[in-house]
Amino acid sequence: MSKSNSLTPLKMLLFSFHATNTIILSYLPLYLKYKGLNGTEIGWVLAIGPLASIFAQPFWGYMSDKYKTVKTMIQICIIGLLVFSVIFFQMDTLIAILVMGAIFYFFVTPIGALGDSLAQRRADDLGVSFGAIRMWGSVGFATSSLIIGEVLTRVGIQYMIIPFLFFGFIALLVTFKLTDVKVESEPVKLSDVTAIIKNKPFVIFLLFIMFLTITHRANDSFMGLYITQLGGSEGLVGLAWFVGVLTEALVFATAGFWFKKYHPLVFIIVAGIIYSIRWFLYAAVDNPMHIIGLQFMHGLTFGVFYLAAFNYVSRLIPKLLQSTGHLIFFATFFGLSGIIGSLAGGALIDTAGGATLYFGMGSLALVGTILLTIYHILPYGKEVFVHRKSK
């Protein structure tokens, strides 16, 4: 079987899962608003996902390393996604939405991380670019955001469960054709996991990137509400995500050409600078079309940052614990940062409006960029990177 053929099911999985992810990320805040929740309450519901992921990411990563299978864990999680999404969307009261949301997210949040972990390992095995595989997730996200945005503008936000289940079933079907990864080592033990927690450069790196990832996650949660605050429709929210994720896909697709030229921390710092500029510009606009025009910066921020950070984390942790390490990174990026971004962002957008929220995000990203620059200058990052690379 050729390289490209053996990767087709994996690319299809990333495409279809990220298509479902778009629907939750882009439209759940608007759906909750339709259900009668205010900004602060929406923030609480959006924080449940990241809270669940803090437990779910390391748990499923550990199970994946322990039983030496990524494929089976992805299948279990997708079945959970399909079953619990149906129940989650039936809920009407805030408490019921929060409880079912926690169970739903426990299965949903690890799928992206496990898919990317599988893609990273398959890329290494086949000697191809991780970005060339990962871009299919971005293409799925972009396609879904554009089409579903238009559909929901016409039929109503209350029907968002239908396209969600459609893409979810496709994701499940393609998993049966996935090629799993082989890990030739002893089963991972809990004591091995503590070695990751004691890895100082890894922990400091995660702490510093949170200044950037909190702002990224706050934007994920509230860009849709900000666009509607500025007078935009569901269709415009979809268009904004489409433009952003299209540039992200281009960054991933071309990673093979530009990524190896510098140390990953250099790319992370550059992405941090652009993040700061991006949020300050969002704070200054007064027309939803300006947000769409600026969304090309999504690829230059998230696309570059994610590739570089994922690569750097892969170098910091031993091969035996790759899934666990990747999922701890995800738990920080999409979990802890998501909780802070959702709760603080929800309260801010409610009390002070979207412009103040984005100005605060720009300031936070600037602090994070300065801290990461210091981290890069100090021997921490470089020494560990060279040490791992030479092994």
- Shape annotation: globular
Radius of gyration: 20 Å
Order of helical and strand elements: HHHHHHHHHHHHHHHH
Can you summarize the main beta sheet? none
Structural domain tally: 1
Distance between the termini: 31 Å
Q: Would you tell me the overall average pLDDT?
A: 86
Give the tally of β-strands. 0
CATH class: Mainly Alpha
Low-confidence segments, given as residue ranges, are 383-391
Class based on secondary structure composition and strand pairing:
mainly alpha
CATH homologous superfamily name?
Answer: MFS general substrate transporter like domains
**DSSP helix fraction:** over 70%
Protein name: MFS transporter
Membrane topology: Multi-pass membrane protein
Pfam families: MFS_1_like (PF12832)
Subcellular location: Cell inner membrane
What features would you highlight for this structure?
391 residues, mainly alpha, Growth Hormone, Chain: A, 16 helices, globular, disordered C terminus
